[in-house]
Amino acid sequence: TTDTDTTGGEELVFFPGPTKGGPITASPDGSQLAVVNSASGELTLFALPGLEEQARLTLGGEPESVSYSPTGEQLYVVLREAGKIVRVGGLAADPTVEVELEVGSEPGRAALSAAGTRLWVPLWAEGHVLGIDTETMTIVKDIDTGGSPYAACVSNDLDDDEEDEIVFVTDFYGVAKAGNREATDGAREGRVFTINGGELGEIRLPALTSAGTTGFESTGAYPNQLYSCAVNEGMVYVSSVGASPASFNGATDFHQNLQGLVSRIDFATLTPEDQPIDLNGLVDDLMPPKRFIPIPTDIAFAANSEFAYFTSLSSDSVLRVDFSMTPAKAGSPSGASFLAASRSPMGVAIVGTDLFTANEVAHSISHIDLAQQQT
Hints:
Elements: E1 2-3, E2 12-13, E3 19-20, E4 24-26, E5 32-37, E6 42-47, E7 52-58, E8 63-68, E9 75-79, E10 84-89, E11 96-102, E12 111-112, E13 118-123, E14 128-133, E15 138-144, E16 149-154, E17 166-176, E18 188-196, E19 199-205, E20 222-232, E21 235-243, H1 254-257, E22 258-266, E23 271-272, E24 277-278, H2 279-284, E25 296-301, E26 307-312, E27 317-322, E28 329-330, E29 339-340, E30 345-351, E31 354-359, E32 364-369
Antiparallel strand pairs: 1-2, 3-16, 4-5, 5-6, 6-7, 8-9, 9-10, 10-11, 12-13, 13-14, 14-15, 16-17, 17-18, 18-19, 20-21, 21-22, 22-23, 22-24, 25-26, 26-27, 27-28, 27-29, 30-31, 31-32
């Protein structure tokens, strides 16, 4: 949508929904796909729906995240190792770097505001979140969060007003919970920072008290390594690697020591649910062959639905979860327990009935047909 009644007199173009950061994204009109690879330092553009490569730029600096402007005419790329944000223009013909901005150490997954006037950049190594004016490419907001802010996502209520939206930023590592001992499954809890009307707040995410995997119900896990967040249908979803440091029968087991978790926050009240959802527990109920989800690196939703798709770094797969059901149910209507990706998927983007993953180690993208639920 557009809004011509702005203080600057210029027309604002708004995104069609909430935004988030990540290594792969589609243009707002669905005609182009952009993907970054931190190992190769490349930004690659593909035409959709045919997936023809249009351009490849070597940016260097370990690109971590990429975001289209609402018009689809520019890209904002986070260079983690270089500590920079670069704006890339000329996407339709000859993509080039227009401007670079130094921001600080280890910027993470940045997200744009509803009209793209601000890019919210977490600084993982410095414990700050920056607001970047995308027109002037200057820092206009510097918020001291502490911790290790990593992934940003921004609400969009479609009222053509950016000022009433909320920025959510995950704190990558779990934080100590008062009164609980270290090396226990409830020693820590997850933390999500909120920026609402310019004010900083935080939400604590409780630990899982009982795993959903058969035989491991006596173990729990706390949210750690909060890789991604997304706003969808009145909820904020946060994926994490659940840490379970307490010993299991005097040792450890892969069913127990790493748990893929999803914490949900009610957007209206900013209150988290009492327990995160154990993705491995959902997978445990599926028919083989199946792949567990210990490290959920990203999340995307099919349009106008509560069907979520999680990339799994360590099992080279995507898991579909239907959150419209109570309890949530994993697996595809086709009967598939997982959707195959290539090596080390770090990000996911959905365009219509097509899903794409950015595969870090394979230096590739995987294409999954959601209508057929097949790769």
